[in-house]
Amino acid sequence: MRPVSILSRGDDVVSVVRSPQSRRISVRERWQTEYIRRLRLTDALVVCGAVAAAQLVRFGGLTEVHDRLAWSSRFDIGYTAVSLTLAGVWIAFLAIFNTRSARVIGSGPEEYRRIASSTFKLFGLLAIVSLVLRVDFARGYLAIALPLGLLGLMVSRQVWRKHAVAMRRRGKYQTSVLVVGGRDSAKTMTTAFARDNGAGYRVVGVCTPSRRAGDKPTFEVAGLEIPIIDDAISVVDAVKMTGADTVAVAATERLGHKGIRDLAWELEPLGVDLVVAPGVLDIAGQRIEVRPVADMPLVHVEKPQYDRATSFGKAAFDLCFAFFALLAVLPVMIVAALAVKTTSRGPVFYKSERMGLDGKPFQMIKFRSMYVDADKHLNALMEMNEGAGLLFKMRNDPRVTPVGRVLRRLSLDELPQFINVMRGDMSVVGPRPPLRREVEAYDGVVRRRLLVKPGVTGLWQVSGRSDLTWEESVRLDLSYVENWSMVQDLLIIKKTVSAVARSEGAY
């Protein structure tokens, strides 16, 4: 008997007989299947390599007959058999705990969390087996296999992730999305997908309420014209028209609770995923938790994290990191200082007033990259400003010295800011340090940037730096303030090194 799927049209519920063979296999399902197949292969190679290396290092070989498991039993088991069993069970645990689920592969921390969880649960099981059956595993053997295998799995997944991001930026490994919702919420979601092309969500259409007179039939996002499908056409028909394999509901007020349920039923036989935006933006995952209340899945949003961003732990990290960073870059700073001093008249360092925590002013230190009278010519250049909002930026600023241009391109002019970190004026990671005139023009929302110390680097620097619009810069800074975490700081520092190496947005 063929399976029956339930479809809903308005208030009428009908039964539709559909053969599994009749469903179209989407492009997303094809690349995900191939991607998961590759993960299975590399996971198996990593795990087998880790247990083989552990046996080789601990016992000096893979087939030595005198390497026997210490077990008060009549069975005589060698460590080659132990290694084979351990590798098999480890690979099985990776599958059991869904480390290769299509929902987590390629993006987000959940993939790494599942790998770590499955690995530690495996070795927890070994500890229980050792205790109950009185099996004495060689501690050195397990001490090598666990960290080596876990590290290898993490690294291999990171390599595959970079491959996936590269493929997505080339137009492959895509998820075709039909966005459903009001014009404003749909455009916000479409813009967010277009901003992060490494996520692989390509919007192929927007299903929105009837257009008003004079409205364009398309959304223009990131230079792309995305067709708007009138809501006189059903979502299912819009999916078939656009070839989408995922429906993203940008706002639930249009469909309602019953409409969302019915839409899920309609999309199920087509193999199309349904995702629903909770209606909040720039809220990090660690602040969101879904809890069922009265049979309703409610999204609970925890309070902003800016209090933690001013904690003793972050201050201690800033102090230690800045100290060791200054030691590491001291030779580079000496060379930069000599270059500034010998090629143009004026001091080595340039001190600029910036506004810090709670709007308190401080003197930010940088290597001088402009001529000494640069500030006098600012008003004359305002008409050529290429910066966004309150920012002044010029790609070919005539006030910048030849050496200063090199320092800016390599971001070496910012190295003395670690001295500000040592003095407590700045953090290693934080919002962009604003000028007094910028702060005086802030509204109530933008002033929230001042709830934490400004940073030597931040989300603004790893996301485009001078190439960002004013709105994007503000959004990123506020997102950092609201969602601070130590893990995020470490990731930003890692990304900063890559952004500086590529000189992205630096001028």
Describe the structure.
It is a multi-pass membrane protein. It contains 15 helices and 16 strands. With 507 residues, the protein is of the alpha/beta class. The chain has three domains: 153 residues, Rossmann fold (3-Layer(aba) Sandwich), CATH 3.40.50.20; 141 residues, no CATH class; 195 residues, no CATH class. A six-stranded mixed sheet has the order 7-8-6-5-9-10, with helices on both faces. Strands 1-2 form a two-stranded antiparallel sheet.
Give a short overview.
Belongs to the bacterial sugar transferase family. With 507 residues, the protein is of the alpha/beta class.
List keywords for this structure.
six-stranded mixed β-sheet, phosphotransferase activity, for other substituted phosphate groups, single chain, alpha/beta, membrane, 507 residues, Rossmann fold, transferase, disordered N terminus, globular, two-stranded antiparallel ribbon
